[in-house]
């Protein structure tokens, strides 16, 4: 008698299920050893999600999630007033607020990793030209008084001029004035101890201005009888004190060369006081009438 094939298969399946030697075999791959962060936020925290694009891989997604692998430092100014009154020599890689808080500190003058150094442009070249003009003019006039070069009066002639102008201690004053112009002019050209050199030239120019002023009645400015030459040289000497000599100088690495402050202002006051005191105590005439 012929058997039904379906009955045979059903019987085989029943026998196989009943046999203890067959069944689902376990695998070590059924239990993962590492779980990735869940994309669903959990209670009490924002949760994490895996990055899906290149931008999210680099910076994270717009909601702050993602696992950034690289972050490029960027300067972001937090307010318009953060950097308005601060020097613009160094821009750091941090925020604008942190830069504004430390820009005035001399300790931050050192360039760090990630900082951007802002150049001074033509500022140092302009200061060099100013120093050469003022220092060179003072030097040659001082040599005229000290040695008689270039048809100058020499010390004797300079002393006679001072006596005729009403100065006391004319001989000593002639020597100090001539040396002050020569030394001050030479040091200005070199850019060495610049605040004191410019203060010396300023003191001489104050007395030269007063000497020129009493030669003519009333206030005179325009050349040849006026004081425009002495005024210009004196003001330029004061400007050099306040701005510093710049980096193209022997003082280039000193603080007063690029960031003059209290010391340079004191040198300016010293130069003005020296010139005024010499005129008042050794001459005494009123140059304003």
UniProtKB/TrEMBL annotation:
It is a multi-pass membrane protein. Residues 1-112 are annotated as: Disordered. Residues 8-19 have a biased composition (Low complexity). It is found in: Cell membrane. The keyword Cell membrane applies. Residues 78-89 have a biased composition (Polar residues). The keyword Transmembrane helix applies. The chain crosses the membrane at residues 186-211, 262-282. It holds the Pfam family DoxX. Keywords: Cell membrane, Membrane, Transmembrane, Transmembrane helix. Belongs to the DoxX family. This is DoxX family protein. It comes from Rhodococcus jostii.
């Amino acid at each position: 008698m012929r058997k039904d094939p379906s009955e045979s298969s059903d019987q085989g399946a029943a026998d196989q299920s009943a046999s203890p030697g067959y069944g689902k075999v376990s695998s070590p791959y059924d239990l993962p050893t590492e779980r990735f962060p869940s994309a669903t936020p959990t209670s009490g925290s924002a949760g994490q999600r895996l990055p899906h694009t290149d931008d999210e891989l680099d910076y994270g997604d717009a909601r702050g999630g993602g696992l950034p692998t690289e972050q490029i430092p960027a300067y972001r100014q937090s307010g318009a007033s953060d950097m308005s009154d601060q020097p613009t020599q160094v821009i750091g890689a941090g925020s604008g607020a942190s830069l504004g808080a430390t820009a005035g500190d001399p300790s931050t003058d050192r360039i760090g990793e990630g900082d951007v150094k802002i150049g001074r442009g033509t500022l140092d070249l302009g200061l060099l030209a100013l120093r050469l003009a003022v220092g060179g003019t003072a030097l040659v006039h001082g040599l005229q008084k000290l040695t008689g070069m270039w048809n100058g009066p020499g010390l004797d002639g300079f002393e006679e001029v001072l006596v005729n102008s009403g100065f006391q201690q004319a001989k000593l004053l002639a020597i100090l004035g001539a040396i002050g112009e020569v030394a001050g002019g030479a040091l200005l050209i070199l850019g060495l101890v610049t605040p004191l050199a410019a203060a010396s030239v300023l003191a001489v120019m104050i007395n030269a201005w007063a000497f020129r002023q009493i030669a003519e009645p009333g206030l005179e400015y325009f050349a040849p009888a006026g004081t425009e030459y002495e005024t210009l040289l004196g003001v330029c000497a004061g400007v050099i004190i306040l701005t510093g000599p710049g980096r193209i100088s022997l003082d280039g690495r000193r603080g007063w060369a690029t960031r003059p402050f209290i010391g340079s202002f004191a040198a300016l006051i010293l130069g003005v006081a020296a010139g005024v005191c010499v005129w008042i105590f050794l001459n005494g005439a009123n140059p304003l009438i």
